[in-house]
Amino acid sequence: MQDDLFGGPPPEDDTAPARPPARRTGVHPAAWGDELRELAARLPPALRLGTSSWSYPGWQGLVWEGAPSDQTLARKGLPIYAQHPLFRTVSIDRSFYRPLTASDYARYAAQVPGHFRFVVKAPSLVTDALVRSEDGRGREPNPAFLDPLLAAQEFVMPALKGLGRLAGALVFQLSPLPWHLLDRLPEVLERLRAMLQAQPALNQPDAVLAVEVRDPEWLAPGHLPHFADVLKSTGATYCLGLHARMPPLADQLPLLRMLWPGPLVCRWNLHPVHGPHGYEDAEKLYAPYDRLHHPDPDTHALLARTLAGVCGRGQNAYVTISNHAEGCAPLTVRRLAEQVAALNPT
User: Fold this and answer.
1) What b/e string do you get for 85-110 counting C-beta neighbours within 10 Å, with b at 16 or more?
2) Which residues pair with 135 in a beta bridge?
3) Nearest partner of 210 among 239, 242, 246, 234, judged by Cα
4) Interval 209-231: pLDDT, tens
């Protein structure tokens, strides 16, 4: 008692509020269970599944712990994304809007493990026949459309240099053509051949040039053999474009069979229910992209069988999936992985 009167330590106050735990900052992985890791182990090594970009706070609990802002995820999310057991690729879509430098690509490559491969979109500078206004309307012809030198300098060379061994599918996604070019598609195909032939050698083991189109006329019987010859003669492949503007997967596979053997590239972009111009409708309905709204079991089943067959014969496969495909890209990836695993004999 004397010690207390003359400056001894005061008794502890059990009623004082507990100090709150320190707030975690940055981006952290969700709690991925053993079941997800076991599923990943059952997939063919040559199969690389992933999403279109990664900056979605709504993937809380699926990819991220919590819901970091999209700006935070754009800057810091890729290393966490690449730790997800099922994600072995991602589509870099921002390159479509402006060319990226080799340093830009190198910064991406430095954030992912060695087994990861990137899918990259070529800039619209060389893949759109029209110069467009901000609302997407075509203003005038694009003089750089399918320009061989620009394609090499502004896309293929910097991507190969920056990504190195992590280069996967370099995709020329050709925007919808104006009618006067669709009527002269054989001429456009020869311009495409000249551009592809002029590209530098792909000196990375898993790199491939791929062409995605947004007009069904490219796959019409009168043009299909010509299209296949252009791709085969230049060592490129066709990118399956699962998009509301295009025929269903079953109607696109004949072109892939004409190019066999070879790798498979697929971008699952937009559910047909929204129509060919339905991105805004899909965004309004699907945001924040945390659940499936329009499951597409037929596409899952056929794509899974195709992937199992391609990878089972030693060919690489790259599949990137948008939130606009079914509502939540990570959940679509998981469903597809489950079906491929069920077909994989390992």
Assistant:
1) bbbbbbbbbebbeebbeeebbeebbe
2) none
3) 239
4) 999 999 999 999 999 999 999 99
